[in-house]
Specification:
mainly alpha; elongated; about 120 residues
Length: about 120
């Protein structure tokens, strides 16, 4: 997103409307990235505390183990904390599955938004 704004600022021949659309698409991708897992965990029934703990663990494990660490870490933390909270393995697994699915779906949405940005930039530039 910064590259698009810099290209426009430096005198690239891109219409301001196209730059605005690119910025909106970029901000949407960022919002989906930051909120996708948390929103899906909350929809699945996770507490706010569980959601925050899963986010911290996911980021930490993503640094160490990459994307697999992110997904596995969030699933494990949501399952463990929700199982401890309710004492039901089925409920913990369902909530963890919602959180994990949310992360995977948000990744697909980010790819689509980024591809849309590339398409708009190629057409506008």
């Amino acid at each position: 997103m910064a590259g698009v704004v810099y290209y426009w600022w430096a005198g690239g021949d891109v219409a301001p409307l196209a730059v605005g659309l690119l910025v909106v698409l970029g901000l949407s991708a960022i919002a989906v990235d930051w909120l996708g897992g948390a929103v899906s965990a909350r929809v699945g029934g996770a507490s706010l505390r569980t959601t925050l703990a899963a986010a911290v663990a996911g980021v930490a494990l993503a640094v160490v183990l990459g994307p697999l660490g992110l997904v596995a870490g969030i699933f494990a933390v949501v399952f463990a904390l929700e199982y401890r909270r309710h004492g039901e393995a089925d409920r913990g697994a369902r909530t963890a599955a919602y959180a994990t699915a949310g992360i995977l779906v948000s990744t697909v949405v980010q790819v689509l938004l980024t591809a849309a940005m590339l398409g708009v930039f190629l057409v506008a530039a």
